[in-house]
Amino acid sequence: MRAFSIMQPIVRPSNYTWPPAGFAGEFAERLCGSPVLYGGGGRQPRHSINFVTAHDGFSLADLVSYNRKHNEANGEENRDGEEHNLSWNCGASDADDGDVAPPSVKALRHRQMRNMLAALFLAQGVPMVLMGDEYGHTKRGNNNTYCHDAPLNYFDWAAAQEDKHGLVRFTAALSAFRASRPALRLAKHPSGEQIAWHGRMPNEPDWSEQSRLVAFTLTDGQPGSQLLYVAFNTSHVAVTLQLPPPGQGRSWRLVMDTAMQPPFDMPSDDLSPEVRQAAAAQHVNLRVCTYTMMDRATVVMETEAEATGF
Predict the structure, then answer these.
(1) 39 contacts 66 by C-beta, under 8 angstroms
(2) Phi first, then psi: what are they for 250, rounded to 5°?
């Protein structure tokens, strides 16, 4: 996830404790609204415009479907467009680019799209979503489509309405969750009283260069506020998390797990009782504050009043 600014002085706020540099630390900094970039001169998280994809470059679907650009249709022998795309087709080689990939690869692509959208909406700052990414629009690997007045650039209303892979539903639920949780829209960069970093164990984050796990708890700091727990596992192996205590008379409730198939990835209140009951079955291990997190997944939990008589 990238943050945009027309002015980028490197200023570290005096009241901000920051993890060491590295993959995990850089990602954590973006999740906090890029305080290193925006912490000086009275600027706040709202000054950070966060995005994964923009009108130039790959769409979100293509970012996870192509290792290389495919701009042959532009008539410049594939010489135009950006070479450094930071993309991965989720397969074994370039042979898995695009629609030729096997079903297991395509399933991972859908999960990765949900992971990237989750990172965008769970970060402090202003999320910017490229039109069409909410339903998985593809430009067939073309990262420089300015010259096409064609379906390559058109919004596909039929695909959005069909929502074949549940991405529109997921994006809408994610947006609504962000809008209803003040902790995800802080007026100032999170302080030590509002955010705590974790690893496989509570309060033991791993900021090493090899770390592929970033987890934190977050609150808006108001009395009685819900506590959010967010974890990103970018590794290819699963991890078992020991969650921090939810507080007296409280328990953890699973909100999102992108490793689950839709609509279990983020069950909403408008789903059928059968679906909500199946999702609730995931609460069993939360009662002992442990959760097995699959590879390349995002998990969100929040505290709620503990049920009695169950």
Answers:
(1) no
(2) -120, 160
205-233 per-residue burial string, b: 16 or more CB within 10 A, e: under 16: bbbeeebbbbbbbbbbeeeeebbbbbbbb
Could you give the domains of the chain?
2-180 (3.20.20.80), 190-305 (2.60.40.1180)
User: By C-alpha distance, which of 206, 209, 27, 182 is closest to 118?
Assistant: 27
Residues 6+ apart with CB under 8 A from 117: 52, 60, 129, 133, 134, 167, 170, 171, 174
Rounded Cα gap, residues 252 and 262, in angstroms: 21
Residue 106 corresponds to which tokens in the numbers above?
A: 């395509």
Q: List, in sequence order, the alpha helices (H) in 227-308.
A: 273-280
Contact between 196 and 217 (Cβ < 8 Å): yes
Element (H, E) at 177: helix 167-180
- Under 8 Å CB-to-CB from 100, ≥6 apart: which residues? none
Tens-of-pLDDT digits for all 310 residues of the chain?
Answer: 665 433 333 334 444 444 555 789 999 999 999 998 887 778 899 999 999 999 999 999 999 999 999 999 999 999 999 999 999 999 999 999 999 999 999 999 999 999 999 999 999 999 999 999 999 999 999 999 999 999 999 999 999 999 999 999 999 999 999 999 999 999 999 999 999 999 999 999 999 999 999 999 999 988 878 899 999 999 999 999 999 999 989 999 999 999 999 999 998 767 777 776 776 676 667 878 999 999 999 999 999 988 654 4
Q: Give 111: exposed, middle or buried? Use CB within 10 Å, 0-12, 13-18, 19+.
A: buried
